[in-house]
Amino acid sequence: MIDFENVTFAHAGTSAPVLKAIDLTIPEGDLALVIGRTGSGKSTLLNLINGLVPHFTGGVLSGRVTVGGLDTRTHPPRELAGTVGTVGQNPRAGFTTDTVEDELAYTMESLGFAPDVMRRRVEETLDLLGLSTLRHRSLDTLSGGEQQRVAIGAALTAGPAVLVLDEPTSALDPAAAEEVLAAVQRLVHDLAITVVMAEHRLERVIEFADHVIRIDDSSCSLQDPASAMTGHGLQPPVVRLGHAMGWSPVPLSVRSARRRASALRDATFSPTRRRQGGEDVARLVGASVSYGRADALLNVHTHLRSGQITALMGRNGAGKSTLMNVFAGSQRPKRGNVRVAEADPADLKGRELLRHIAYVPQDPTDLFYTDTVARECEAADHDTGQAAGSAWRRLTELVDTVDPQTHPRDLSAGQQLALALAIQLAATADVVLLDEPTRGLDYPGKQAFGRWLNDLADAGCSVLVATHDVELVAVIGDRVIVLADGEVVTDADVRTALTSSPAFAPQVQKVLAPLPVLTVEEARSL
Amino acid sequence: MNSRWLHPGAWWLWALGLGAAATRTSNPLLLGLIVAVAVLVVSARRPQAQWAGAFSVFLRLALLVIAIRVVFTVVFGVRVGTTELFVLPSVALPDWLAGVTLGGTVTVEMLLIALIQGAQLATLLVCIGAANSLASPVRLLKALPAGLYHVGVAAVVALSLAPRIMINVRRVMQARRLRGRPTAGLRAAAESAVPVLESSLDDAINLAAAMDTRGYGRASTTSGAERLLQAGLVLVGLMGMALGLFAVLGASGWGWALLGIGVLMAVGGIVLAGRRVPRTRYRPDPWRWPETLTAGSGVLAAIAVMTVSSNTITLPLTWPALPAGVVAAILLAALPAGLTPPPPLPWQAT
Hints:
The complex is a heterodimer.
Chain A: E1 2-10, E2 19-26, E3 31-36, H1 42-50, H2 52-55, E4 60-67, E5 70-71, H3 77-80, E6 84-87, H4 100-111, H5 115-128, H6 144-156, E7 162-166, H7 174-191, E8 194-198, H8 202-205, E9 211-215, E10 222-223, H9 225-228, H10 237-245, H11 254-260, H12 262-265, E11 280-291, E12 294-305, E13 308-313, H13 320-328, E14 335-340, H14 350-356, E15 357-360, H15 373-384, H16 390-398, H17 413-424, E16 431-435, H18 443-458, E17 462-466, H19 470-476, E18 479-484, E19 487-493, H20 494-500, H21 507-512, H22 520-524
Parallel strand pairs in A: 3-8, 3-9, 6-7, 7-8, 13-17, 13-18, 15-16, 16-17
Antiparallel strand pairs in A: 1-2, 1-4, 4-5, 9-10, 11-12, 11-14, 18-19
Chain B: H1 8-23, H2 28-45, H3 54-76, E1 84-92, E2 101-107, H4 108-134, H5 137-143, H6 146-159, H7 161-178, H8 186-213, H9 224-249, H10 254-276, H11 289-308, H12 324-332, H13 336-339
Antiparallel strand pairs in B: 1-2
């Protein structure tokens, strides 16, 4: 269905190609998963299929990509629109209409479908993706998972043979991610659509993949999922558990791992206690925030302890970012009181703010104000009064593929996040606030990130991480706060919180339940 | 009445009718009536959407226009009238600056005339604002002829840029504070200008990429000569329309002819262009009696005002008359507030 013939691509103005001499064929009706380190060129590979590379981005392409017999060199994206459906990393940014129904019809309108065909296809798609109750809703009122499903539906209605998905679940909570993946699986099974999907959260997707395309050093090939999961750092917890236990073949899904683990579940496990934390450094008393008529936070009482990593979890739109903003002083609560180190955070500024609060907001590019990575690091060292080169050193610990002369906005999403973390985690602030910090980070990046957070917590910082990533929380978390509709519904230590609800259970816990084991490292001690 | 979207063309005809009426009368009572009707209809039928917030922006702009008009009259205005209010120190500019005199005597008549003229423009702005907050720009785009679609998209994206930049400014300023940098002053503004523009541009590029992959801009192949003819027709036709409108508003006779030729040429060009674009429409907004009522009431108000009222201000100023027919016609334009279907709520399920 999709053929790459000796494809090499370099961005304009660079000599080193992003992708080199790629030959691969993705068969019709299969799901191919693209994996690779942060910034390895996954999005570029996907955009080669829909023609955005090189028609929209520029750059030098040699070799040939054909999709359903159409050569992307002679067919720009708009002419491939009937053959390839594309869903970008941020579906909200690509919406062109006001309501769900109109959005679904947009591609068909552009391609000049007859009105009765459009009506039929819209109905079919509404049913296929479970969107029929949302059909007249305004796109602004949808949750993240609903937006993602609408975007997939909008890419589907014109009847493409190929669907390209760039990180479809990375911004979603576990339940919404399951919804989206179930929908994708139905497309592959029922409609025989060829799906090419890039995703860092392998634990969510690897079991659905027919093939894995692993990008290593600018080159890649089509591999069998099981063999692609050996001998490198990109493995979900269930695969690492399989390796650690010496299971062969290595299980890719929780279900197959559970079958192998029956003996393991009879072992005795005495859980170690995670950090309990010291005194309160930040407090929220009866805080409420509302946007228009909707409550973002409703009478929230909570506190953050020093020397502890707290995970803030909950559905998309549950109020996590608002809570972060209130602690950072970016937003004053409508009612109630917030204190960070006995001060009102909204009154702090300059170095005093940096001494008390380090915050990485959801869109890290907002933090950048110079034109190269190197200058950004220098400015951070200067602002925080640290030795020259310390921000750059932290950056290279997280990702090793960054050119210091790159413009921060030209970095991949994962690299941008790493840069923002490297800049903001300079000073040992009392409170470290991180909003979705692992979006687009690969497993090695997450490990380095986890080590930093541990160091920070050991040094006495109070770390609050808003995240959907249960695997990250299982490894680094000490305490979990769950928000639902602006209210705190759970506030417990990490083991209690993650073992009590199947939606929040990490893979190892699902395999070894009822033992309260959360991580591969803990499972090794059994 | 079941909620549905009224055809955006109906709202625009209604608003443009009221706006045209405003430009053709200097009767402050009628102007006030038009504003009242517009505010009533907007408050009754404005949907809950981001773009519907445009009305308050236009209201503020209208007040600003009146204020500017008054200030300019006081400083630069021609001294007319006899009822002296106060005297400003006056400066006579040299001959090479047209010999204008700044300041001087300010009379009640001058101020009243400035207020009326400002109110005319302000009322027009209020009407345009009403259309902007009643009719969704995206739905209006859908109702445009296919030949105008691509130009229309550019216009809608450009219109949405200003609110998006404001959102980005707020975000970037918050982020600057989090990096411990000053958020006020010239340096802060200079340093944050680039990130703000970059993120606004990124938004636009993301949207453009998404639209490209969804078939936007797809055209069937036509010869270069045909494209040139079509573009030329639209361009010359639009220029003719603009000149013609100008002449019509200035009430000279040849304006109508020019306007007619311009409209014909532009329509011809748009039809030609439409043949190149293979677009179809999914469930176009229907045109039923509420649409006819809405558009008709606006046009009626315009006709009534144009036939009866006068646009000239004569001294001495007298208390304006209220011709019953015109008042009735303008009041009829308030009917859409109750007789049109209400807009759907954003979270409405069916």
